Amino acid sequence: MPHLQTEAVIVMTNTLRWVESSIAPPERVPHKDSFVFRYANKGIREALVQKLARYISGLNAVSVLLSAGYVQEVGVIFRTLDEIQEDIFFLACAETNGAWSERHTQYLEAFYADAVFSRPEGALQISKPNLLPRKKIRAHTMNAIGQGVNVSQALDVAESLSTAYSGYVHAASENIMEMYGGNPPHFHVEGVPETPHIETFEQDTEIYIYRGVMVACVVAKAFGNKSLVEALYEFLAQYEVANGHGPSRGR
C-alpha cells in the first residue's frame, strides 16, 4: 500500500480511537460458560463506531488479499464497504441534520438484533431481523443531505454502483471465470498474483481509501468534534491533490 494510502488508514484509525473512547465501552455480558462484549446503549453513536471499525478492517483486509492475488474476495469486500458507507451516512444524518425518523428506529432494531441471546438453546432456526430496505436507506440520506441533488437520478447512480461488485458477492459465472487460466488452464483457488485484474483493483482500493477518509469526517461530525473534522478535511484536501480527486464537499 503506497505511503499516503497507509497514512490515510492511520488517520481513519485515529478517528476511530477518539470516537470509540468518547462513549461508554462495551460491557461483558455472561454467555454460557464465558461472556461476550455488547454495548449497553444501543444507539446511533455506538452503531457509527462499529461501522467505522468494520470499514477500516475491510481496507486492511483488502491490502492482505491483493498481495496474495485474491481479487474475487476483494470484490466481495468492496461491495461490503459500499453498504457500510451508505449506512454511516444514513445514521450520521440523524445527528448532523436532525433527520431522525422511524427508519432509523427500524434500522437500529435490526442492527442490534442478537441471535446469540434470542435463539433458544438447541434451536436450528434464527428469526430474521426486520431489515430496512437499501433503497429506503439511500432515499432518506439523499433527502436529508442531498441539497440541490436530483434524488431520483442519485438513487439510480447509487444502485448502479452497488451492482458493480455484486457478481463477486453472489459468485456469478463471469466473475468466477476470472480465476480460470494458466497452462494447462485450471481454476486458481490459491490466489492469482499475476492476473491483470490486480492493477484495476489496486486503483479501486485507492478510491475506497479516499471514501474512507470522507466516512471518518462524517462520523467525527456526528460526534460533534469540530477540531477533528477540520483536521480530517485538511488531510482530505492533501489526499485529493496527491491523487487527482475533485474537491471534497460537505463542510
Briefly, what is this?
The protein has 11 helices and 4 strands, in the order H-E-E-H-H-H-H-H-H-H-H-E-E-H-H. The chain is mainly α.
Characterize the structure shown.
This protein is mainly alpha-helical and 251 residues long. It has one domain. It is 64% helix and 6% strand. It contains 11 helices and 4 strands; from the N terminus they run H-E-E-H-H-H-H-H-H-H-H-E-E-H-H. The protein has a two-stranded antiparallel ribbon with strand order 1-2. Strands 3-4 form a two-stranded antiparallel sheet. Strand 1 (27-31) and strand 2 form a beta hairpin. The two termini are 28 Å apart.
Write the layout of secondary structure elements.
Blueprint: H1 3-21, E1 27-31, E2 34-38, H2 44-67, H3 71-96, H4 102-111, H5 115-118, H6 134-145, H7 151-163, H8 166-169, H9 173-176, E3 180-181, E4 186-187, H10 197-222, H11 226-243
Antiparallel strand pairs: 1-2, 3-4
List keywords for this structure.
11 helices; two-stranded antiparallel sheet; 251 residues; 64% helix
